[in-house]
Amino acid sequence: MDLLIVLCCLLLAQNAVAVLGQLGNAYYNSNNNNNNGNDNGNAPPLTLTPSLPLISHFINDSFIIFCKTVQKDMDTKWRDPNGQTRENTKGRVHIEKKTGFLALVFEHISLADKGNWTCEADAATQDAKKSFELLVNQKISFDKTEQVQSVREGHDAMVNCFVTGEPKPEVFWLHNGENINTVNSSKHRRLSDGLFIKNVSQTDAGEYTCRAMRITPTFSDSDQITILLRIQHKPHWFYNETLPVQYAYIGGAVNLSCDAMGEPPPSFTWQHNGKGIVGFNHRVFFADYGATLQLHIRNESQFGDYKCKVGNPLGTLERIIKLRAGAKPTRPTRFQIKRLYTDAFELDIRAPRMPNATDEMQIYGYRVAYMSESDFKYSAGNWSYAKQRDFSFHRGHRFIISHLEANTTYLMRVASRNLAGLSDWSGVNIFATAAGSTRALMSLWTWLLLLLVLIWH
Ligand SMILES: *[C@@H]1O[C@H](CO)[C@@H](O)[C@H](O)[C@H]1NC(C)=O
Ligand SMILES: *[C@@H]1O[C@H](CO)[C@@H](O)[C@H](O)[C@H]1NC(C)=O
Ligand SMILES: *[C@@H]1O[C@H](CO)[C@@H](O)[C@H](O)[C@H]1NC(C)=O
Ligand SMILES: *[C@@H]1O[C@H](CO)[C@@H](O)[C@H](O)[C@H]1NC(C)=O
Ligand SMILES: *[C@@H]1O[C@H](CO)[C@@H](O)[C@H](O)[C@H]1NC(C)=O
Ligand SMILES: *[C@@H]1O[C@H](CO)[C@@H](O)[C@H](O)[C@H]1NC(C)=O
Ligand SMILES: *[C@@H]1O[C@H](CO)[C@@H](O)[C@H](O)[C@H]1NC(C)=O
Ligand SMILES: *[C@@H]1O[C@H](CO)[C@@H](O)[C@H](O)[C@H]1NC(C)=O
Ligand SMILES: *[C@@H]1O[C@H](CO)[C@@H](O)[C@H](O)[C@H]1NC(C)=O
Ligand SMILES: *[C@@H]1O[C@H](CO)[C@@H](O)[C@H](O)[C@H]1NC(C)=O
């Protein structure tokens, strides 16, 4: 009964009608306009409060409706939309009875409660009957809709969007933010579970917005979901031809890369001379659209043909990289400072020509690794934390390391580069950038002077 009273009060507060006292007496004189008609001059034997013929609520709302009789001793009952008499005084939907009124209580409404509910007197005269229709609204949702979908090129396809909601909303579609015209379109059709696309091509890829909207007499709302549509296609190379021949030397390392697009994303496998790669001297770095094979060459037998196979359900590709023995580059014989700046060094680096190597195998550049003294201490002298800068002779013979801090000590080392990889590192040199400009010092002196003058006064 407590619940009933609380709900009663809520209902009354909502309607801003101060009839609490009258309710206490279980008497309510309804003189509002009864929308159900049935008014033949006399006060009707039955009234519903609220008295609207259509009442709309969302799932899980709570709601009470009172059926009142003029005669206090009149027996009444509620019938559900199936015509069944409801008499239970407990449960999600139940009846609460007091002299003068019979309340129908929905603790939380469910979709199954929709329909016509009727209060009627036992000694049924024609007029002693009142109905209201309960409309149950359900929020819009896109339950099982996948936010990434993929369809095949050259086929007809559906972008699925499973909208639920009561009343059922209308669905509109956008492609990359632009409205899709589905009226008289031979390309797109709006179906109940999604958008039909005829003869899918690459231009149909992108973001589809499935927007559900509804306008009802009691409320209006909308919701949307964005679906990324990918177009399936067989793999194709990112770059037309990576070097079909690569070089390495025993004791060195080399990266063989294989990058290809595909939808669904393709799988990558590497083979050496027609067999799977075994042993500890390799690692494969997989990315979404590529796989890089890193080899540490320890043994002649590791040279040969490396085949990268790329595949997805729509097709396969393969490419062979021939790995040949090259000459290890000689390390630089000269490594010193040419010019000092506050934020940069210009380096003087030389490596001799390799007398027994072909022209192709000659050194084509350098790699400089460097770290500040404090970083060096912080990383316990681990050079894998060093910054690197690669130079190639075809970009000129000036080797400038920039973006350095002023008045800071750096540790640096250098290696030569050729087609077969990197040489051994040079010894570590220690260089310091120039201190701040003298002009900065001057201004400091000026300030001090000014301060002295001020204090003097
Ligand atoms: C209704 O309430 C129940 C329990 O509180 C909850 O599990 C359910 O998700 C709710 N339904 C809606 C549509 O809000
Ligand atoms: C409820 O009753 C009204 C009037 O009799 C009728 O028009 C409507 O279709 C009924 N609704 C349902 C859900 O049966
Ligand atoms: C759709 O096509 C029909 C018949 O071809 C035509 O009468 C109608 O005006 C067209 N509607 C739109 C919106 O283009
Ligand atoms: C599908 O579209 C492609 C161009 O994107 C076209 O060449 C082909 O003929 C079309 N197929 C059909 C069945 O319309
Ligand atoms: C790759 O080569 C083919 C023909 O050799 C050419 O049609 C295509 O545009 C090239 N693709 C790229 C990404 O360079
Ligand atoms: C090979 O690739 C790995 C991972 O990207 C990289 O750390 C390494 O320096 C590369 N090795 C060579 C020789 O380029
Ligand atoms: C290379 O290594 C394999 C085993 O890993 C060994 O059988 C072979 O003899 C080695 N070849 C050379 C030239 O050292
Ligand atoms: C170059 O080759 C010759 C003989 O072919 C050999 O005597 C010499 O030591 C080689 N020089 C170097 C730097 O490898
Ligand atoms: C240097 O750091 C790298 C990366 O954290 C680590 O893998 C390597 O073992 C370290 N080397 C030494 C000699 O500590
Ligand atoms: C340069 O650094 C040294 C030591 O860190 C410091 O004593 C000196 O004042 C600095 N000079 C300038 C101009 O910042």
UniProtKB/TrEMBL annotation:
InterPro entries: Cell_Adh-Cytoskel_Orgn, FN3_dom, FN3_sf, Ig-like_dom, Ig-like_dom_sf, Ig-like_fold, Ig_sub, Ig_sub2
Residues passing through the membrane, by range: none
Residue stretches making up the Fibronectin type-III domain: 331-436
Pfam families: Ig_3
CDD domains on file: FN3, Ig
One GO term describing the cellular component: neuronal cell body
Protein name, per record: Fasciclin-2
Lineage summary: Eukaryota, Metazoa, Ecdysozoa, Arthropoda, Hexapoda
Protein encoded by which gene: LOC115630612
